[in-house]
Amino acid sequence: MSRLSLSDADKQARDWFVATAQELGCTVSIDAMGNTFAVRPGRQAAPPTCAGSHMDTQPTGGRYDGILGVCAGVEMLRVLKEEKIETAFPVGVVNWTNEEGARFPISMVSSGVWAGAIPLATAHNLKEVGSGGRTMKQELERIGYLGEMEASYEAMPIGLRKGPFRTAYRYPRSPFEWIIRTLDALKEPQRLPKAPADTIQHPEQGPHLESTNRHIGIVRGVQAYRWHTITVRGRDTHTGTTALPLRADALLTSAKLILASHRIAAAHGGLASTGILTPSPSSVNTVPGLVTFSLDIRHPDDAALARMERAMQAEFAALASGAQLAAGEVRGRPCGVHWRLDAPSAAVGFDDACVRCVRDSCAGLASVEMRSGAGELCDFGFFFVSGAV
To answer: For the whole model, what pTM was predicted?
Structure first.
């Protein structure tokens, strides 16, 4: 399954979501980032508590990537309607645009605009990865999901009512029961909303739950990450006429830097990954003079991530200058290295009330508390399900 953000496949999924939500009695609102909110009224007017997630995927993300949370929310709406259950306050389902950041390279960009963390113009002008050059705003317009509503928590608040958390109803056990029970717990008629509340169900995207025979991961927070684009500048020359000591090989240097990033990340207890590498010119018999590559570094602790990044910057400079050589390696001419920060995200601890709500709703089920390795936005009730469920 490949459903990149704002593609034709994404539009088809969005159209299904809007039509289904309306059939289930929801009012659907679309904001200027294409975030889509389906809200079912309650007995009293108030900002809704929402389930949901995103429908865009990684290029090979799989059929459950993101959309599982949206489908769980739709199932919640269906059960509420079929069982004629009336909630004290509104509940809803939200689809966030480009949460993955696979096509437009800032993850959580649209939820970030809604939260006030990313300027609208920055998000609208974000260009797709690759040679297409289309912006988010252009693609929102093309598929018909550039909404008129302001993209902000003020225009579309999501409310959390704090107080004792208990489950009033029992529903038929299914993969969607947990999200219904969690939403029910969040809707206790206590005080006015003071913090955003969004309950998300998502595949774990990792092996921990399945390997430990657990079905649910209760997520306490997410680790920090920083996305960079690294540019390495050397000189493109002919492979047959340029001796090794006379080469400023940008691709060979990039390979050393990527290897160093993994070694440094491991030493700091963090992670480093490169998913995009573009050499120029791309010719069999030309030494590449220019390379850009992505660098995604992550750590549960903000300070440790900063130390890890500084260590990489220092070693990248030394390797590119030729100051560090492996055994048997020929010293070539130096290359230049430039770092560009594309997307920073600090470590986040979820609201204690949201975590407690998910924990209470999973009572009696095979669960474990954990931290998410993937990025998420803010005060959510968030839980993973095992790929084996």
So the answer is: 0.72
